[in-house]
Amino acid sequence: MSTQEYAVLGTRPVRHDGADKVTGRAIYGADIHLAGLLQGAILRSPHAHARIVRIDTRRAEALPGVKAVVTAADLAVSQDRIVDLGEGDTPLSYLRGNVLASGKVLYKGHAVAAVAAASLHVAEEAASLIDVEYEPLPCVLTTLDAMREDAPILHDGLRTTEFGEKTGRVSNVAEHFRHELGDVSAGFAEADVVVEHEFRTATVHQGYIEPHTATVLWNNDGRILVWCSTQGAFVVRDVTACILDVPVSRVKVTPLEIGGGFGGKIPVYLEPVAALLSKKSGRPVKITMTRRDVFEGTGPTPGSVIRVKMGARKDGRIVAAQAWMAYEAGAYPGAMVGPGAMCVFAAYDIANVVVDGFDVVVNKPSTAAYRAPGATNAAFATESVVDELAEKLGLDPLEFRLKNAAREGTRRADGPKYPRIGCVEVIEAMKNHPHYSAPLEGPNRGRGVAIGFWFNAGLPSSCTLSVNADGSVNLVEGSTDIGGTRTSVAMQAAEVLGIGAEDVRPEVADTDSVGFTAVTGGSRVTFATGWAAYEAAQDVVRQMKERAAKLWETDAASVTLDHGVFRSGDRSMTFRDLAARLGETGGPVTGRGAVNPRSAGGSFSGCIADVQVDPETGKVDVLRFTAVQDAGKAIHPAYVEGQMQGGSAQGIGWALNEEYHMSPDGAMQNASLLDYRMPTALDLPMIDTVIVEVPNPIHPFGVRGVGEANIVPPPATLANAIYHATGVRLRSLPMNPPAVAEAIWSKEG
Fold first, then answer.
1. CATH class for domain 304-456+601-748?
2. Integer Rg of the chain from CA
């Protein structure tokens, strides 16, 4: 547990953006209004899979008030190439194709054409006047259907990569990879108990409240100015530049406040389209998605089919584990099966492991990250099997997990060996929590537990600090603030400088005003951008010591800083007083920090849930819920608790209700927040939180990212609780009332 004493870290200051947000003054993406602004509308495909025979835009162009119409034909024609813009290697043609369809549409809602007009009503009417002739094709909506030998092919040029080698085989399987550790056959031969099951999870959406929106001006000087809601301004800059075939220096992106993202606002959808409309019209263009557009035209998390087999000895040691994981990529390769395969057995020390992963394209929107992408699907399978193993061995489920928990030195099947981690401490905190030993009385009630892991991301971050004459400090960084990160970053700078968090004024800047900074994702901002702020603050301290030495006519090496006071011998001066004298010691002081951590030292989480199940209707009520997570060092405990509660709430929704309900022809039938059933306050208990602090040896303050691991164990926790309430194990998500009732009725014959 963390024992270091800090003055700022671990406190709960008021967040710097709080006043603007509670008074409605904060500027979000749709709040931008430029002179001469046009409104954009996008025409989307009514088919899940069809060839585009022709597009006729003449009627739309003739409508009064229409200023520009664009299709994929307006995109710059350049050689296709592989680009890595923060989400792995991707063919440029896939990025372009998802922005505006060319040749074929691959999902209902696929963008086909766009219009800019004097008003939104005119733009929408004009879009409806665009005549598109389609040749409908058969569609495939699940991994198993798409993997069949006779399945309709989405991409004629997609050839399967297997174990890193190009096979030349045209199929819907973009990649098959394998992770191996030890000898899994020998491991299963050693096992006394083996459990094997198949698990399925539905496609679900991140559920952010603010829809995607972008305003773009293709200026007369050739620069492209973008204002948008995004998790990564530099990703928007780089993707937009690639798609439009212009240098990145010609694109400037200003990220505005963001109304949620959870990974779904990393991909780029609107900005290149708005840019083309602006170039054609000579005026700025704004496009804002409707809620239906968000559901049908942006990336949900993948549905999956996972088969897990695990074996254990009578003494309680897990000796072998095997997973077969097929994830939906949506229309273009890039399913979250890679992270899922990294996490599937990551919480356990198992000597013999094999994991096979399949990245499978289907006729749904191209998938996007959703809070620990791929890991929740994986944990639902693994933690259900682990629970069943514990039962067959007659062991307490937490004791069984503790006996097999990953520790420092444990190697995962995908390669990495753990440094200091907090898996054991998380399980011990669960075991010692009053919730775990509390009586659970009454019929049809059950208690479940599960644990989970997310590896977290490092990636580049930049930060600058400028010291003001009044002793305050301006902090400029490039990470979109979703969960209060501008404050957690500012607090780390304040700790180094020995000043209050309120004396650091953080700002999230545009791409021209700060060094390259990767996406707000992977639980990386407090870790990596906070580290950059730490380095920038160290730079300020070094310069301030030189200024103090100049005033005192001494050597800078003799000057120390302790809790905001500089000292050398019997002389001292506060940070504020020295800041007031910078003008007479050489002028402004500006500190710079840039980091690029290659690893981030992952986070473990766990939860305990009590449920009551109505055996007649199948309705599941969550009576009590406790979330436990290792934060390394909780910079702002209230924000950490909020992340834990938010991830738990989303995990509960994923477990019990949420899904893309698809028709056989590929249409989403619940594309509204009325019909897509996310949990409300009426569906959730108060969520108790326990913060564990096992310092991360990689980070100067011991920080671990905490935004994602908390969503990993809730579905498995609830599945295990439902089993203990009903005697029925459910192996498909969501576990909604019809599914639960059917399972109970089947058990009862």
1. alpha beta
2. 27
Q: Which residues pair with 304 in a beta bridge?
A: 201, 327
Please state, in angstroms and rounded to a whole number, the distance separating the CA atoms of residues 568 and 570.
6
Class of domain 29-137+212-288: alpha beta
Report which secondary-structure segment, H or E, holds 309: strand 304-312
**Distance between CA 479 and CA 462 in Å, rounded?**
9
Confidence category of residue 749, pLDDT binned at 50, 70, 90 = confident
CB atoms within 10 A of CB 614: 14
Over residues 704-730, mean pLDDT = 98
Question: Tokens 């309709």, residue?
Answer: 152
Could you give the CA distance from residue 608 to residue 629 in angstroms, rounded to a whole number? Answer: 12
Local confidence band at 86 (pLDDT 50, 70, 90 cut-offs): low
CATH 3.90.1170.50 placement within the chain: 29-137+212-288
Give per-residue pLDDT as tens, 203-252: 999 999 999 999 999 999 999 999 999 999 999 999 999 999 999 999 99
* Residue 570: how many other CB atoms lie within 10 Å: 5
Nearest Cα to Cα of residue 533 among 582, 602, 484, 486 = 486
DSSP string, 317-352: -EEEEEEEEEEEEETSS--THHHHHHHTTTTB--SS
Question: Measured between alpha carbons, how far is 536 from 517 in angstroms, rounded to an integer?
Answer: 14
Q: Where in the chain is the domain with CATH 3.30.365.10?
A: 304-456+601-748, 458-595
pLDDT > 50? residue 2: no
User: Taken in order 554, 557, 560, 561, is the CA torsion positive or negative?
Assistant: positive
Output phi, psi for 390, to 5 deg: -60, -40
pLDDT band of residue 92 (cuts 50, 70, 90) is confident
What are the DSSP calls for 413-460, one per residue?
TTS-B--S--HHHHHHHHHHSHHHHS---STTEEEEEEEEEE------
Task: Identify which of 70, 68, 71, 74 has the alpha carbon closest to the alpha carbon of residue 118.
Answer: 68
Going by DSSP bridges, is the β-strand pair 111-117/565-568 parallel, antiparallel, or unpaired?
unpaired
Residue type, position 208, single letter: Y
Domain 458-595 fold:
Aldehyde Oxidoreductase; domain 4 (3.30.365)
CA dist list (Å): 199 to 55, 100, 454, 654: 42, 35, 20, 14
pLDDT band at 715 (very low <50, low <70, confident <90, very high): very high
Query: pTM score, two decimals?
Result: 0.97
Q: Name 213's bridge partners.
A: 288
If phi > 0 it is left, if psi is from -120 to 50 it is alpha, else beta; for residue 367 that is beta
Q: What percent of the chain has pLDDT over 70?
A: 99
Q: Is 260 left (phi over 0), alpha (psi -120 to 50) or beta?
A: left
